[in-house]
Automatic annotation (TrEMBL):
Annotated CDD domains: HTH_XRE
Organismal lineage: Bacteria, Bacillati, Actinomycetota, Actinomycetes, Streptosporangiales
Species of origin: Actinomadura montaniterrae
Domain (HTH cro/C1-type) ranges: 8-62
Superkingdom field: Bacteria
Name of this protein: Helix-turn-helix transcriptional regulator
InterPro entries recorded: Cro/C1-type_HTH (IPR001387), Lambda_DNA-bd_dom_sf (IPR010982), MLTR_LBD (IPR041413)
Length: 250
C-alpha cells in the first residue's frame, strides 16, 4: 500500500509539476512538500486536501489520500436517486428536458449512462436489446456493431474522438475499470488515424432515411462535494446543419 507521500508525488508527476510549483500554488514551502512526499513529515488532513486541491485530484482519490494519511474519508458517494442529491438529480433532469427536441444524456466516470432525454429513444430503438441491459455503457453503445456503430457514417472519426477523450480522462485520473474498457474497445489498431477536421468533429448518423450531422458539448457540476456529482457529465448534441435541425424540430 502506498503512503500518502508516494501518492501525492504520483499526482504531482501526473500534473507535471515540480515540488516548487506545487509549493507556490499551495502557499507552503518546497521543503515541506519534499518532507511530506518522503514520509519525513506527517501532513494534517487539511494539508492533504490543500495539496490535493492544487493538484486537481478527483474527490474519489482525495478519499484515498486521506485514508493513506490515517484520516477518515471526507467525501460521500451516494446514488443519484438518494434524497440528499434530489436537487442535483432534478437539475440533471431539467437540463436534459430543456435540451429537447435534441438528444442529451448523463453518464458517469466509466461512461455508464445514468439518464437520457426523450430525443435519445428513437436511436435506442435500433440497438440490440442485450446492449440496453443496465448498466448501459455509452462507449459500448457507440462502438459495438450491434449498437449505434452501424448507424454512424463516419465511425472511424467518432472512434478516434472517443479514444482521445478516454485517454485524456485516464491521464488525468487513472481508473482500472475504464482502462480495461479502453483496451477492450479503443486500443489503437492498424490503420487508425486521428480524426481530421478544421473546426470540430461532427457525428454523422444515418437515421430514418436521413444523414444527421451532430456535434456535442459536455456539462459538469461546478464545486461538487459528493463523489457521484464529481463524476457526472451531461453530453448534449446539437444539429450541425439546417437539415438536421429540421429533422428534430419537425
Amino acid at each position: 500500500m502506498h503512503t500518502v507521500g508516494e501518492l501525492l508525488r504520483q499526482w504531482r508527476h501526473r500534473r507535471r509539476l515540480s515540488q516548487l510549483d506545487l509549493a507556490i500554488a499551495a502557499d507552503v514551502s518546497a521543503r515541506h512538500v519534499s518532507l511530506v512526499e518522503t514520509g519525513k513529515s506527517n501532513p494534517s488532513a487539511a494539508m492533504v486536501l490543500r495539496l490535493a486541491d492544487q493538484l486537481d485530484v478527483p474527490l474519489r482519490d482525495r478519499n484515498t489520500l486521506l485514508l493513506a494519511a490515517g484520516f477518515a474519508p471526507r467525501y460521500a458517494e451516494r446514488p443519484l436517486d438518494d434524497t440528499a442529491l434530489s436537487a442535483a438529480r432534478n437539475a440533471v433532469e431539467r437540463v436534459l428536458r430543456a435540451h429537447e427536441p435534441y438528444p442529451a444524456l448523463a453518464f458517469d466516470r466509466r461512461w455508464d449512462i445514468i439518464m437520457t432525454n426523450r430525443a435519445v429513444d428513437p436511436f435506442l430503438a435500433e440497438v440490440d436489446p442485450e446492449l440496453l441491459r443496465p448498466p448501459v455503457n455509452l462507449l459500448r453503445l457507440g462502438l459495438d456493431p450491434r449498437g449505434l456503430a452501424r448507424l454512424v457514417v463516419n465511425h472511424a472519426d467518432v472512434r478516434a474522438v472517443f479514444r482521445a477523450r478516454v485517454r485524456r480522462q485516464l491521464a488525468a485520473a487513472p481508473d482500472p475499470g475504464l482502462a480495461a474498457l479502453y483496451e477492450d474497445l479503443l486500443a489503437p489498431a492498424a490503420g487508425d488515424a486521428p480524426a481530421d477536421s478544421d473546426v470540430m468533429i461532427h457525428m454523422i448518423v444515418r437515421h430514418a432515411g436521413r444523414e444527421l450531422r451532430l456535434f456535442s458539448t459536455i456539462t459538469t457540476f461546478g464545486t461538487p462535494q459528493d463523489i457521484t456529482l464529481d463524476e457526472v457529465a451531461i453530453e448534449s448534441y446539437y444539429p450541425a446543419d439546417p437539415q438536421t435541425a429540421a429533422h428534430f424540430e419537425g
